[in-house]
Amino acid sequence: MNKDFSVYIDLSPIAIVILDEHGKIISSNPAFHGLTGQYFNGDMPSSFLNLVAEDKKSDTEAIIKKSFNRQISAEAQVLSLMLPNNNEIIVSAYFSLLEGEIQNILIMHLINITEQKNLETRFAHSQKMQAVGQLAGGVAHDFNNLLTAMIGFCDLLLMRHPAGDQSFADIMQIKQNANRAANLVRQLLAFSRRQTLQPKILDLTDVLADLTNLIRRLIGENIELKMTHGRDIGHVRADQGQLEQVLINLAVNARDAMKGGGVLTIRTGKCLIDKSHPLPRDLVSPAEEDATIADGNYVLVEVIDTGCGIPKAILQKIFEPFFSTKEVGSGTGLGLSTVFGIVKQTGGYVYVASKENEGTNFSLFFPIANQQEVSAAAATENAAGDKPDNVDLTGKSTILLVEDETPVRIFAGRALRNKGYTVLEADCGETAIEIMRDKGGEVEVIVTDVIMPGMTGPSMIEKITQQYPNVKVIFISGYAEDVFVDNYGSERSFNFLAKPFTLKQLASKIKEVTG
């Protein structure tokens, strides 16, 4: 080879390797050595095919042969290379045939596109998750309307058929099954990150202490439970019920992974994440666009089992909805997607590390609440402790009820009239505005759905408050409060009641607003 030509190859920042027609390496430059981790110290393979991933060798060999026969286009070919440390990289390869007097040689330029491919995969995954999340949220919204009516009419029936009545047990069965359906809907909303959270300042040590007996019963006698609590780990801001659901889901998954028994360890501690204290390398995050954890102080909860582990090939799929490693009929595939949705909506992060036949470690990172939040929560809790348990839920105010779902409107109207309120009903925003023109001076509270055909609840309220700025408003919705805030804005005060709600919850909210 011409000496000057070799110098240019050596100085190139792009990895270059020169092959003969059998794929044997004739020469390569330092950039190629840096890319592949191979050096001229006895480890350099004689054939380029020895660097190619096993399942891609035949395809790569065919590409090399076609290049020598000029049967391949000048476009880049995507190849997978297996490095000595068992790490696989993806490269974009450009082939150029150089004809010589003695032999023809193939010059191959290689560009590392591993990160680009990973970004493309994460982007495609995030789009898919977003689409499924929107679908789940929409389905859950419609179900919440149905469940509100079902639970509400059960409450009305129970007023006429109290305990001791022969119909009482049947009505309670209907209501209990409707509540079970509501829990499933909450799982869908948790996955889509649209469920209504009621966050408060929590000590995770106390939460886990309350859950210990339940978890012991869930995992069975053949699995040992170890609880290890860190000292002074701080507080977190989260919804206690949802957080308990996260821990129970992970405990059940761990139990299912240890069919023959084992050890389940739940460990808490305080963790600092920054450049000097990065995440352990074996922790894998779901393939999300926002998977990188932000620097800061976190409360770390680890749920560790000694079970069968999760194969590396599916490790990032386990958080997808309806993906399950269990036998058909043994799981919904919503457990881990629910965990992921709840933790992300709480502002936290989920990571997992697993080795087959050794076990799995789920690591949950929750931002530590600042001291001002902790102090304010303590003051609020003390004040709440002075309130009486039995509150009179009757009233005499005039209420405008705006709801396009007829069963929900009928139930809510009857429930409020039973409590002594005067109720005006409207099935859409336009009708509500007409009622306010005639009787707006009498209306003290407007209870309105958020999403309705034609005019939305917030748009209707904006028009009404121009003439009646002091009217009180309660928004009801099958979506979460934080989703509503994103669209309505937090600068204006409002009251919110999430569907499905019971008769008592509706009456309590009205009483709270009217004073």
Average pLDDT confidence is 80
Distance between the termini: 92 Å
Shape estimate:
elongated
- Calculate Rg over CA atoms: 31 Å
Largest sheet: 5 strands, antiparallel
Helix-residue proportion: 40-55%
Low-confidence stretches: 326-333
Strand percentage lies at 15-25%
Overall strand count: 17
Q: What topology, given as strand order, has the largest sheet?
A: 2-1-5-4-3
Number of helices: 14
Structural class of the secondary elements? alpha/beta
Describe the fold and architecture.
By secondary structure, the protein is an alpha/beta fold. 41% of the residues lie in helices and 22% in strands. It is built from 14 helices and 17 strands. The chain has helices at residues 3-11, 30-36, 57-68, 114-160, 168-191, 204-219, 240-257, 335-345, 371-384, 406-418, 429-439, 457-467, 481-488, 503-514, and strands at 15-19, 25-28, 77-82, 88-98, 105-112, 200-202, 223-228, 236-238, 262-273, 296-305, 349-355, 359-367, 398-402, 422-426, 443-449, 472-477, 495-498. Strands 2-1-5-4-3 form a 5-stranded antiparallel β-sheet. It has a 5-stranded mixed β-sheet with strand order 7-9-10-12-11, covered by helices on one side. The protein has a 5-stranded parallel β-sheet with strand order 14-13-15-16-17, sandwiched between helices. The longest helix is centred in the first third of the chain and has 47 residues, at 114-160. The relative contact order is 0.08. Residues 326-333 have low confidence and may be disordered.
Write a compact overview of the structure shown.
The strands form four sheets. The chain has a five-stranded antiparallel beta sheet with strand order 2-1-5-4-3. It has helices at residues 3-11, 30-36, 57-68, 114-160, 168-191, 204-219, 240-257, 335-345, 371-384, 406-418, 429-439, 457-467, 481-488, 503-514, and strands at residues 15-19, 25-28, 77-82, 88-98, 105-112, 200-202, 223-228, 236-238, 262-273, 296-305, 349-355, 359-367, 398-402, 422-426, 443-449, 472-477, 495-498. It has 515 residues and is an alpha/beta fold.
